[in-house]
Amino acid sequence: MLEKFYIDTTNYIHKDKVKEKYIRLLIHFCPLIDIIFYPCLLAYLFYMQDERFLKCLCIPALSFLLCTLIRKYINKPRPYEIYDFIPLDKHDKGESFPSRHTLSAFAIGYCTLYISLPLGMITLLFALLVGLSRLIGGLHFPSDILSGFLLASLLALLYFI
75, 90, 105, 161: which is deepest, by most CB within 10 A? Predict the structure, then answer.
C-alpha cells in the first residue's frame, strides 16, 4: 500500500513540471523558515535577557542530538531505497528514522509557542508542512514523520512543564 502511494504520488508530480517545482519549493522553503526564524528568536531572547532563552536553546539542540544518535543506530532505509521511484529531492541514503527535519521543525515550533501563542501556531503550521513535504517527496515513511513529531513533543513536554 505504501509502495503504491509513493510510486503514484511521485509519478503524478513528476509528470507536471509546475507541480514538481512547487513541491520542491515546499520541501526546501519550509525548513528554511525555521533556519531563519529560530536564530532571530534566540537573539531576541538573549538581548532581552529573557530567562526562557536557555530552554529555547536546549530543547532543539537536545532533540537534534538525540534524533541524530537514534538515526545512526537504527539506520533505516528511505522509501525510495526500498520502492522503485525517484524522490522529489536528492538525499543521502539511510538514516530515515526519525525525520530530523520534522523533529527540528516541531522542536522550534514548541519553543516559539512557549514564547508567543500566535507565532507558535504559525511555526507549528510550518512544522506540519515540513513533515508533509518530506512524506510527499518520498524522503520519509509516515512512521519517520510521526516519530519525529512525537520525540519533539515528548522532549518539549518534559522540559517546558
Answer: 105
Tens-place pLDDT, residues 59-90? 899 899 999 999 999 999 999 999 988 898 88
Mean predicted confidence (pLDDT) in 20-48:
91
Q: What is the pTM of this model?
A: 0.92
Q: Is residue 160 predicted with pLDDT exceeding 80?
A: no
Residue 27: CB partners within 8 Å, gap ≥ 6?
88, 89, 133, 134, 137, 139
Grid coordinates 517546558 are at which residue? 160
Sign of CA dihedral 40, 136, 93, 17: negative
C-beta of residue 88 within 8 angstroms of C-beta of residue 24? yes
* Grid cell in block for residue 114: 512557549
Picking from 86, 31, 88, 22, the residue whose alpha carbon sits closest to that of residue 64 is 31
The span from the CA of 106 to the CA of 57, in Å, is 14
**Dihedral sign for Cα atoms in the order 97, 83, 125, 40:** positive
